[in-house]
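URGENT: need a sanity check before tomorrow's submission.

F., can you look over the 4-coumarate--CoA ligase family protein record below? I want to be sure the sequence and structure line up before it goes out.
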Amino acid sequence: MPIASPFPDVEIPECTVFDFLFGAITPAESSAPAITDGSTGLTTSYGDLVAQIEAVAGAFAARGLRIGDVVALHSPNSPMFAAVFHGVLRAGGTVTTVNALYTAQDLLKQLQDSGATFLVTVSPLFDAASRAAAEAGIPTHRLIVLDAMPGHDDFAALLAQGAPAPRVDISPDQVAVLPYSSGTTGVPKGVMLTHRNLVANVAQSDEVIGIRRDDAVLAVLPFFHVYGLTVLLNLALRARAHLVTMPRFDLEACLRLIQDQRLTYLFIAPPVAVALAKNPLVEDFDLTSVHSIFSGAAPLDGETAAAVERRLGTRVRQGYGMSELSPVSHVVPIGRDDLARSSVGFPVPNTTNKLVDPSSGQEVTPPDAGTSEPGELWVKGPNVMAGYLSNPEATLEMIDKDGYLHTGDLAVIDADGAIHVVDRLKELIKYKGYQVPPAELEALLLTHPGVQDAAVVGAQDDNGEEVPKAFVVVREGAHLTDSDVIDYVAQRVAPHKKVRQVEFLDAIPKSATGKILRKDLRQRPSVGGRA
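C-alpha cells as predicted:
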C-alpha cells in the first residue's frame, strides 16, 4: 500500500517559474533586499532584480534566443546568476546549469549533450569555458562573461541592450532546467525539469521548510546544483527572504558573514555541519542570529546534527531528494523537534512513496512500532522529472509505468511515519554532496599504462564522509603506488571527482556476466591508500 504524505496537498499553479515567483510582487516587496553579494556587500532589491530579469530576457531574445533554446550557465553564486537564470527562463529558454569546478572536457560533454547555443561564464572560469565553447561550436558573440572580458559581452552589456522582454507563450510543461545527474549509475544525463516541476517543488517545500520574509539566508550551496537552485534561489525568492551569496565555501569567511549580516537560516551540506560541530573557529564568532539550519545533498548523521544544535543553540533539520525529483522529496518539518535527527522526515505534500523489497518486489509494510524492513524508496508526484534528455531507455529504467521514480536508495519507515535512508542500491558516490559516477573514474583509470583492471566505490574517510576509493589491479611488470594512482586521476578530473583512497588487488571481483561486485568491495576491511 502506498505511503501518503502526512501533509495536505498544496495548490500548484499552472504557470511559469517567473510568474510564480515574481508575478504578484507588491510595491513594498519591490523595495526589500533580494540578494546581497557577500563578497562585495552590494545588494539588489526585489524591484531591481525583476527589472534585471526582464532586461536579460530582452537581451537574449535580441541575440536570437528562441523558445526551447539551451543556455549553459557556468558560474558560482552571485546576484548576476539569479538575474541570468531567470532572464533566460523568462525569454522562453532552457538553462543547463554547469558545475563551476568542471574541466574544459567535462564542460564540453555537457555543452554537446545539451545542445547549448549560448554559454554564460565568469572570468575565473574563462579558460575552461572558452576552450569548451570553441570545440562545441559556440561562437564568440554567444560566449558571455558576466564580470567582463575583452571581446565578450558582459552582464552590463545585457542590461544596456534596451530590448524589451519578449512576449512568449511558455507551457508549464516546457523544460526549464537541464541539470546533469548520474541517476543511479553510469555517466551524467540531462535531467529534464519543467516549469511545472520547479513550481511544484517550491510549493511543496514552502511550509515544511519554513523560510519566512524576515529571514536572511546563507547562499553558499551552489545554485548550479539543483538543491541550491530550488531551495535557496527559488524558495527563498518566493518567500521574499534576503539571500546572501558566497561564491565558494570558506569556514572563516562564512562565519564572519553569518555574524556581520545577522543571518537567520543556513542551508548546508554535511561537511559544513561537521565544521560547525567541531572546529574551534566557531567560538570566535557571534552566531546567535541563526534560528535554523537545514542540511541536504548527502546523509547527515544524528550525532553531528545534535552536536550542532547544542553548540549553536539552534535547530537542525535535514531532507532528502535528488535531481530527478526537482529535488526535494522528503523533509523533517521545521516544527518537529520530536523526530530522530537521523531521519529525512516525511514525504512532501502531493507525493506518495513505496518501499519495495528489491529481492521479492513486494511492498514493505509500515510498522505499528519500531522500524520496518528496508526497501528501495520509490517516489511519485508532480516533482518527478519529465525524463532524461534524449535517453528514453534510461528514463524507463528510472520511472515505472505507474509514475514512481525508483531512487536506488534503501530506506526504512518508523512508527512515526518518518523515512530513514539506510543504504544504497545505486552505484553513485556522493562526495560532499557532489555526484561522482564510478564508471567514469574506472574508464579513466584503465587508460593508465600500469593499470590492468580497476573498480571504484564509495568508502568512509576518517571523518565518516563518503569518498571515492579505487581498487586497482597492476599490470604485470608495472610498479604503482597509491600516490601514482591518486595523482594520475587528480590531473584529469574536477576536484570533487578525485580518488581519495587506493587499494591494490590481485583481481576485481565480478559476477558471471562480468559486472563488478561493488557490494563485495564495500564490505572489505579498510586498508591502504591515503584519504
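My own read: The domain at 429-522 is CATH 3.30.300.30 (GMP Synthetase; Chain A, domain 3). The first strand starts at residue 3 and ends at 4. If you see anything odd, call me.
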